Amino acid sequence: MSKIVVGIDNTASAEDALAFARRLADATGARLELASAYPYEEWPSRVASHEFGAFLRDEAQAVLDGRAASLGDDTVPTHAIADHYPARALHGLAERIGAALIVVGSTHRGAIGRVMPGSTGERLMHGSPCPVAIAPRGYAAEGPIGVVGVGYDTSDESEAALRAACRVARAFKAHLRVIRVFDATRVGTPALMTFPGYEAFNQDYEQDQRERFEHAVAALPSDVSAEAMFLSGRPGSEHFANAGRGEIAGERLVERETDEWRRRRRVVGGQGIDLHLE
Q: Which of 142, 199, 258, 269 could anchor a disulfide with 134, C-beta 3.0 to 4.6 Å?
């Protein structure tokens, strides 16, 4: 991982994003680049006001300088970008500099300790040139990452998420929790099967999935401390239900490849095939 773009503004969510990005950079050796978009389009027109544009740019730059100063490193690059759409600005910057990750904070409407993408986070997930990480609200006040949880369902996308989770766990010297949620409502059965036969088929299929899952976890690198967690229910909702019991305490981050962009885009911040950090 070479460069991490951090979306910056003057809200507390930017502090959360910066805190996570800094920890990730420290663990991986990546370089941080801070970016802030201000609502101005640099197109010649009769109503263009270059003075107003300069004022907005200086205001955004002041916020960036303040965040950079909090890192104690005056060599951190900053980018004040004229664009009405922050997601587009971050996409463009990430593509220009070849960033490995974009990090933003959660919306202030979300519960503390949970990920809830705001409008910028939602737009970032569409067509991003690199993974997108959404730090949970209140993350800046928390301690080091000790547990990495990844959702796994044997698909190619979950295999990619599992490999990424291993790298993250190794970098943070954290414990890896691999989570498989078995959703019986999505199991197809032969036509005209009676209830006893359906129940036996469902149990056999669940046992097969459990054994495949446990085999995949057992095959993980020996230098990664890992555990398997096989749950029944619906992916996503079951993850959050277990958070209250401390099994997946506080959904930190989520890595998955969405159905729509699974062949070319990896997204952090979603549900289903997830990567959680706590």
A: 269
The residues with which 147 forms a beta bridge, in sequence order, are: 175
Q: Quick check: do 1-142 and 144-278 share a fold? A: yes
User: Are 5 and 97 within 8 A, CB to CB?
Assistant: yes
Q: How far is CA 176 from CA 21, 79, 233, in A?
A: 20, 35, 21
Residue 61 buriedness (CB in 10 A; 0-12 / 13-18 / 19+)? middle
Asked if residues 157 and 208 have their Cβ atoms less than 8 Å apart, the reply is no
On whether the 1-142 domain is CATH 3.40.50.620, my answer is yes
Is pLDDT at 181 greater than 60 in this prediction?
yes
Residue type (1 letter), 270: G
Residue 177: phi and psi, rounded to 5, are: -115, 115
Distance CA 271, CA 257 (A): 10
CA distances from 138 to 112, 142, 148, 252, 253 (A): 6, 7, 18, 11, 13
Domain ranges of the chain: 1-142, 144-278
Cβ–Cβ < 8 Å for 78, 66:
no
Where do the H-state alpha helices sit in the chain? 12-28, 50-70, 86-97, 119-124, 156-172, 195-218, 237-243
What is residue 20's three-state secondary structure? helix
Contact 82, 38 (CB under 8 A): yes
The residues with which 232 forms a beta bridge, in sequence order, are 182
Question: pLDDT tens across 225-245, in order?
Answer: 999 998 877 665 555 444 433
pLDDT, tens only, 248-260: 333 333 444 333 3
> Which residue has better confidence, 183 or 98?
98
Which token pair is 15? 């502090």
pTM of the model: 0.70
Instruction: Please give the class, per CATH, of domain 144-278.
Output: alpha beta
